[in-house]
Amino acid sequence: MGLRQQARLDVRTILRDTDGFAWPVVVTDPDGLSACIKGFSTDIADLIDPETGQAVSGRQAEVSLAMQSLKNVGLGHPAHIASEDGKPWLIRFDAIEGTSHTFKVMRSAPDRTVGLILCFLEAYVA
């Protein structure tokens, strides 16, 4: 097995490991089709700039999903973010304390080599 194939298997293993890295992520496409799959997400609030020590306001959220998992539940993937009617791809996941947060996908970075898509998120209010 080549290194690329091993990397693809590693990504699948990490994103399916619910005892370690992965947890439930609800993905909703622009047509309203939703599915719960396993993924890895971050939601980081920047209150202080680590370089200057100045108080700032910011939030950075991302989610990594296996393309195969999206395909398995009948979804495409948000590689083409713009939609004609302006409906966004939505991502919902729980924070560690159990509160649910919904985000819209602002841009994505599909890695077709290992079958992973990284979605850069923005808070969403319907």
Quick recap:
Helices cover 16% and strands 40% of the residues. It is α+β, with helices and mostly antiparallel strands and 126 residues long.
Topology readout:
Blueprint (H helix, E strand, L loop, with lengths): L2 H14 L6 E6 L5 E12 L13 E8 H6 L17 E5 L5 E12 L4 E8 L3
Assign an overall shape. Answer: globular
* Named CATH architecture: Beta Barrel
- Structural class determined from secondary elements: alpha+beta
Count of helical stretches: 2
Count of DSSP E strands? 6
**Rg over C-alpha atoms, rounded to the nearest angstrom:** 16 Å
Identify the notable features of this structure and list them briefly:
single chain; 126 residues; alpha+beta; 6-stranded antiparallel β-barrel; 6 strands
